[in-house]
Design a protein that fits this description.
With 166 residues, this protein is α+β, with helices and mostly antiparallel strands. The chain has 3 helices and 11 strands. It has helices at 10-19, 27-45, 157-164; strands at residues 61-64, 67-74, 81-87, 91-93, 96-97, 102-113, 116-119, 123-126, 131-132, 135-137, 141-147. The chain is elongated.
Length: 166
């Protein structure tokens, strides 16, 4: 049978069985193992297990004309999230309010934030309470963002109209 377990001569099987008998751990090693196991259980229950999302995985969804979003992680309480924004050439994000700090790293391409042109590798912080200036991309870009879930309700109407009339 192809899936039958291997058979060992009786003396070898006995030696192997002796090698895997329970052996008491010293108290320090036992406490260490129990604490690591308990921490992993707590982390898993709180959703803190590590996660890896490769570029070909995850779902790109339409966020707005010329912009797609891929959510990487949402906090269980909805307080913040990590996501990618893919801006096609000519994409435009309107000015908007920030209710928590928002961190952004340009991964590919270039964007103009207000009047400042920034490229790949650039970090940008939009502090809580500010109106974020418009973001444009002439040739396309990919951004990593950690902040509150984007919503059209947070659009800064006056600032948006000013930007559009420039």
């Amino acid at each position: 049978m192809p899936n039958a377990p291997p058979s060992f001569p009786a003396p070898l099987a006995e030696v192997m069985a002796d090698a895997v008998r329970d052996a008491p751990l010293d108290p320090m090693a036992e406490r260490f193992m129990k604490s690591r196991l308990a921490a992993r259980v707590r982390d898993h229950e709180r959703g803190l297990a590590s996660a890896t999302i490769r570029p070909e995985h995850g779902e790109w969804e339409r966020f707005s004309p010329r912009i797609k979003i891929k959510v990487l992680r949402r906090e269980a309480d909805g307080s913040s999230m990590s996501y990618l924004l893919k801006l096609e050439p000519g994409a435009f994000l309107v000015p908007h309010h920030h209710h928590i700090d928002e961190e952004c790293v340009v991964l590919e391409g270039e964007v103009t934030i207000g009047d400042e042109l920034v490229g790949a590798g650039t970090y940008h912080l939009a502090p809580r309470g500010m109106v974020h200036q418009a973001i444009r991309s002439e040739h396309g870009a990919v951004l990593f963002i950690r902040g509150k879930e984007p919503s059209w309700r947070d659009t800064a109407i006056r600032a948006t109209l000013r930007e559009m009339l420039r």
